[in-house]
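ok so for the tutorial part 2 we go from a plain amino acid sequence to predicted structure tokens. step 1 is just haveing the sequence, like this:
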Amino acid sequence: MTRKLSGQTITIIVLAILLIFVSVCGGVYAYYSYNSNRISGYITLGNLKISMSGNSGDSGSSQIYVTNGLCVPGQSLQNSPLTIQNGSNVNIYIVVVYSLTAIDVNDPSITVDTTMQEKVIDIGNDSWMDYIYCYSNIDKDEDVQEGEETIEDMERVRCFVNLTPFKPQDESITVIEENQLRLYNKVGNEFQSKRINFTFQAYAIAQQSFSDITDFDSKTNDEKCEIIMERLHESVKFDFNI
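step 2 — the prediction. this is what the tokens look like for a chain of 242 residues:
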């Protein structure tokens, strides 16, 4: 004989089922939330901060003060020192981009074209490689087809590159010691009776920016300079402030 369930019994059964359902779902929710909390987190980007000081002590581009008005190639220019204050909290490579002008002391309209000269100055510090970074400015000239660029279509940036990464504790970095700046001893007579002006701008790029290049350490110094300058060039949006 079939026994008929009362309304109260049916209600108890439904409530029991709902309680079991809520308990199970609640447990699953807690499990997923727990895992999400464990994998959540944050990252802090490394801080790249450097400042350069010449005679003025200001950050940004600096000019070296030269007291010796008359000099010959290889002779000290009696310069003030050029140093960099490192405030970065990660390992960095430092590049010092520089420009120089040579103007006749009697006729300012007469200048020396230093663009194509491979080496003009000597800083007396072998830790810094004197490097010329060349890149195409083909995109600025619509009349020149790709692959047809000439030497006139190339930008040339003079720089000193230090291939030893500086650590956060390397707070004061010397680029040019006092009285160590000289004209390269092989520059020509075109520099006679010329006033030489120098401007320097320092840039930093994190060492980890090159972690994807597995054979970086095995490359030649020139290859390392080229790689560093290429990535630095991209990071400053193809515009060196000098």
